[in-house]
Design a protein that fits this description.
Elements (H helix, E strand, L loop, with lengths): L4 H12 L3 H9 L4 E6 L1 H18 L5 E7 L3 H8 L7 E8 L12 E4 L9 E9 L3 H11 L5 E10 L12 E6 L4 E2 L15 E4 L6
The structure holds inosinic acid (IMP) and magnesium ion.
Length: about 210
């Protein structure tokens, strides 16, 4: 009776995720990954600050967080739990990249929202703003649906190398250099989304 399912679950998880340096060493050995741009601690600290700011700004008018899949899924999960308000959540999936590390200039809606935006305070939660194409497209598309308000929260904003559409981003986690980065939800060809920190991807375009 002592060896309950719960006991085994605790043992199994402490053998794996309890040893976070063991998880990291898998990534440290990957030659496609470069330097750590943002550590686990830096990200957690900033996400908590963003959550506090959003909690303050949206008091009395609970937001509908619109997560942009797939890249924002981890950020959204962490951010939502740092917001002390009875919020709503919905998801959109868009594709602007295919598997390349440069923008294709095309945004496609792969999954649309379930919730009607009329009268709601919508906060788009995005992983990264690069050319700004994805966000400006999304912004216009959601504005046309009659929300009470619309704002953008992006974990990362790349310093622009080329002119990009003017976009008001109310909440920015970090400004980063214009390098291709992966981790904390961000991928290259669907890989590295579960890398716990954010690192430079150095291997060029995947096959
Ligand atoms: P934008 O349309 O050029 O602003 O690019 C936005 C989208 O491209 C993001 O939502 C990401 O999915 C993807 N993206 C842009 N830069 C990166 C990067 O450095 N790593 C991973 N994905 C990126
Ligand atoms: Mg994205």
């Amino acid at each position: 009776m002592g060896d309950s399912v719960d006991d085994r679950a605790v043992t199994a998880s402490s053998g794996l995720s309890g040893d976070s340096s063991g998880v990291m060493s898998v990534w440290d050995a990957d030659p496609a990954l470069g330097r750590v741009v943002l550590s686990v601690e830096q990200i957690a600290q900033r996400v908590a600050e963003l959550g506090q700011a959003i909690t303050r700004d949206y008091a009395g008018r609970p937001p509908l967080l619109v997560g942009v899949l797939k890249g924002a899924f981890i950020f959204l999960a962490d951010l939502a739990r740092k917001i002390g308000l009875p919020l709503e959540l919905d998801f959109m999936a868009v594709s602007s990249y295919g598997t390349a590390t440069k923008t294709s200039g095309v945004v496609r809606i792969l999954k649309d929202l379930d919730i009607d935006l009329t009268g709601r305070h919508v906060l788009i939660v995005e992983d990264i703003l690069d050319s700004g194409l994805t966000l400006s497209y999304l912004r216009n598309s959601l504005l046309a649906r009659g929300p009470e308000s619309l704002a953008v929260c992006s974990l990362l904003v790349k310093r622009a190398v080329a002119p990009r559409p003017h976009l008001e981003v109310a909440y920015v986690g970090f400004y980063i250099e214009p390098e291709f980065v992966v981790g904390y939800g961000l991928d290259v060809a669907e890989r590295y989304r579960n890398l716990p920190d954010i690192r430079v991807y150095t291997a060029g375009e995947p096959v």
